[in-house]
Design goal:
The chain is of the alpha/beta class. The chain has 2 domains: 4-120 and 247-266, 3-Layer(aba) Sandwich (Rossmann fold); 123-245 and 280-296, Response regulator (Rossmann fold), CATH 3.40.50. It is 44% helix and 19% strand. It is built from 11 helices and 13 strands. It has helices spanning 4-15, 36-52, 65-78, 93-102, 123-136, 152-164, 176-180, 183-192, 204-216, 234-239, 248-264; strands at 26-31, 56-61, 83-87, 106-109, 118-120, 142-146, 170-173, 198-201, 226-231, 242-245, 274-275, 279-282, 295-296. Strands 7-6-8-9-10-12-13 form a 7-stranded mixed beta sheet, sandwiched between helices. Strands 2-1-3-4-5-11 form a 6-stranded parallel beta sheet, sandwiched between helices. β6 (142-146), α6 (152-164) and β7 form a beta-alpha-beta unit. α1 (4-15) runs parallel beside α2 (36-52), α2 (36-52) runs parallel beside α11 (248-264) and α5 crosses α6. The longest helix has 17 residues, at 36-52. It is elongated, with a radius of gyration of 20 Å. The two termini are 24 Å apart. The relative contact order is 0.15.
Amino acid sequence: MRSSNVVSEAIRGRLSPNPHAAHRPRVAAILPMFTTAFYFEVCSALFRTLAKRGFDLVLIDAASDVDADLHLDRLLAERSCQGIVLCSMDLSSTRKRRIDRLGLPVVALDYPAEGIPSVRVDNVAGGRLLSETLIAGGSTRQVLLIGTRLSHAFRDREAGFLGVAPPGSRVFECDATTVQDPAPLLLRLLAESPALDGIACGCDTLALAVLKVLREWNCRVPNDVQVVGHDDMPMAALVGLSTIRQPVEQFGTWAAEAIVDLIEWPRARAPQSVVLPIEVVHRGTTRRAQMPGEIVA
């Protein structure tokens, strides 16, 4: 499992603008670089689509709301990009007014920012599906592991999970260190709740790390402990991880097309916000027979 910093650098190296293309217009994407697999897939689609339209992509890693605001203030002061893609975060009302005055196009990705065209899934429903998938397999003692609560998506999945999870279910916010090595957290959870039989993860990055440790410990997954992730990254199918699938590439494609249309046609009607579908994909880490509307892979 590679660290967040390493993957962030890999993304930057692949997607940063060409220094020899100084006159190409630029779009800046501001995002919390926690769920690196998700954002790598999203930004890859964003990059490809922008490149076809003649734009470069600049990635900005925001570690906190304050950090995001500082980056926004700098972009607005420098006028160094033609548009902004907000990933899993919102703007303050003050900055929305300032952006409106400057006429800088903005779209939101993975969050329904008020007054801004957006593409997203229903993350509250995704959180519910995480718990319901474990419940359907018989799990009554569940935990949810999520990334930073700076991400609205994780907060919404947490709310959805807690709305349907069995009594006593708990949620743990994880940092990059835990993603790289979740063993200490898992040891603590099993010590505090030996009967733990269901682990939901707010992203596949976490679920893959958890599954790796459980298999190293010779835990019987899913017989003893079920594990379910969220996103359906390519690696999930390779290791047999059950997950909640969202159409990740469509996030980046829609955001790129929408921001370029706003830049090139400023007087046109803003694009309609889109809510993309999600679905459960059962593989080898949950106990469940196929149900209507679900996939058994």
